[in-house]
From TrEMBL:
Keywords: Electron transport, Transport
Alphabetized InterPro entries for the sequence: ETF_a/b_N (IPR014730), ETF_b (IPR012255), ETF_beta_N (IPR033948), Rossmann-like_a/b/a_fold (IPR014729)
SMART domains with a match to the protein in the record: ETF (SM00893)
Keyword Transport assigned: yes
Function: The electron transfer flavoprotein serves as a specific electron acceptor for other dehydrogenases. It transfers the electrons to the main respiratory chain via ETF-ubiquinone oxidoreductase (ETF dehydrogenase).
Protein name, entry field: Electron transfer flavoprotein subunit beta
Family: Belongs to the ETF beta-subunit/FixA family.
Length: 261
C-alpha cells in the first residue's frame, strides 16, 4: 500500500519586506509579498527522500493561508511533491496556532495520511509548537526536531541533536515529525519540475468542507490575540565614549548603569 506523506508548508510574509499590522492588529498579509517558509523546504526535501526510498509513496503538500499561499504550494510541487491541498476561508483570518492546528488536523484527516512532516518552525511566527499540537489533535505519536529521518517497516526513525547529546527516536506510523535545517539541503526546483508543477492537482477546501464552524477559528476561536502594538522607536545616536585615558572605566560605568554587568 502506498505511503501517504503530508507535508505542512506555510506561506509567510517576506522578512525583507516592510511588514505592518492591519487595523485589527493582525499582520497585514495583503500589504507584503510572501513565499514558502524556507524552513519548510527542508520538510519537503525529507518527504522526497523518504518517497524515493519507498516502493510506493505519495506526497501531498498542505497549506492554510490566503489566496497567494498557492505560490508556496507551487514551489513545493515544483520540487517534486505529487499534489496539494489549499485551505482558504475568510473566517480563518486571525487564527492563532490553536485554531490553525485545528484546520490543519481536519484537512490532514480528510486527505488521509501515514506520515505528517512539518518544518521546525515557521520563519514568521517561529513558535515551533505547531507539530506537537497537531500530533495531539490527531492522536498520534510525535517525533520532533529531527536532523535525520527515515521510514522502515511502518516505523519512522530519526535523530534529534541536542547541545549535549544526540537521541535516536522512533514511532510507529501514523505519526507527526518535524525536521530541522540540519536535515539536508533542500533541492532547487528544476525547469522540468516547474513545468510539471503547473499540471499537478491543487485541491481547495474551505471551513465547510472540513466541518469546522466559523467561531472555532479566526480571532473568536483563538486562545491568543494581539491587544496593542506600537512602532519601534527610531534609533538614537547612542552614547559615544571617547578614550582619553579613562575610556575603559567610563565603558564599565556605562554598562553598570544599564545593568549589563
Ligand atoms: C491568513 C492567516 C492569518 C493569520 N492570522 C493570525 C493572527 O492574527 N494571529 C496569530 O497568532 N496567528 C495568525 N495566523 C497563524 C500563524 O501565522 C501561524 O500559522 C500559527 O500560529 C502557527 O504558528 P507558527 O507559524 O509560529 O508555527 P510553528 O509552530 O513555528 O510552525 C511549525 C511548522 O508548522 C507548519 N505550519 C505552521 N503554520 C502553517 C500553516 N498556516 N499552513 C501549513 N503549515 C503550517 C509548518 O510546517 C511549520 O514549519 C494566521 C495565519 C494565516 C495563514
Amino acid at each position: 500500500m502506498s505511503l501517504r506523506i503530508v507535508v505542512c508548508v506555510k506561506y509567510v510574509p517576506d522578512a525583507t519586506g516592510d511588514r505592518h499590522f492591519a487595523d485589527d492588529l493582525t499582520v497585514d498579509r495583503d500589504d507584503v509579498d510572501g513565499l514558502l517558509s524556507e524552513l519548510d523546504e527542508y520538510a519537503v526535501e525529507q518527504a522526497l527522500q523518504i518517497a524515493e526510498e519507498a516502493d510506493d509513496a505519495e506526497i501531498t503538500v498542505l497549506t492554510v493561508g490566503p489566496e497567494d499561499a498557492k505560490d508556496a504550494l507551487r514551489k513545493a510541487l515544483s520540487m517534486g511533491a505529487d499534489k496539494a491541498v489549499h485551505v482558504e476561508d475568510d473566517d480563518i483570518h486571525g487564527s492563532d496556532v490553536m485554531a490553525t492546528s485545528l484546520v490543519l488536523a481536519k484537512a490532514i484527516e480528510k486527505t488521509g495520511y501515514d506520515l505528517v512532516i512539518c518544518g521546525m518552525a515557521s520563519t514568521d511566527g517561529t513558535m515551533g509548537v505547531l507539530p506537537a499540537i497537531l500530533a495531539e489533535r490527531l492522536g498520534v505519536p510525535q517525533v520532533t526536531l529531527l536532523s535525520e529521518v527515515s521510514v522502515e517497516d511502518g516505523t519512522v526513525k530519526g535523530r534529534r541533536d541536542g547541545d549535549t547529546a544526540s537521541e535516536r527516536l522512533e514511532a510507529s506510523l501514523p505519526a507527526v515529525v518535524s525536521v530541522t535545517d540540519q536535515s539536508g539541503e533542500a533541492r532547487y526546483p528544476s525547469f522540468k519540475g516547474i513545468m510539471a508543477a503547473k499540471k499537478k492537482p491543487v485541491e481547495s477546501l474551505d471551513l465547510e468542507d472540513l466541518e469546522i464552524e466559523a467561531d472555532e477559528v479566526g480571532l473568536e476561536g483563538s486562545w491568543t490575540r494581539v491587544d496593542s502594538a506600537a512602532e519601534r522607536p527610531a534609533r538614537t545616536a547612542g552614547t559615544i565614549v571617547k578614550d582619553e585615558g579613562e575610556g575603559g572605566k567610563q565603558l564599565a560605568e556605562f554598562l553598570a548603569s544599564q545593568k549589563f554587568i
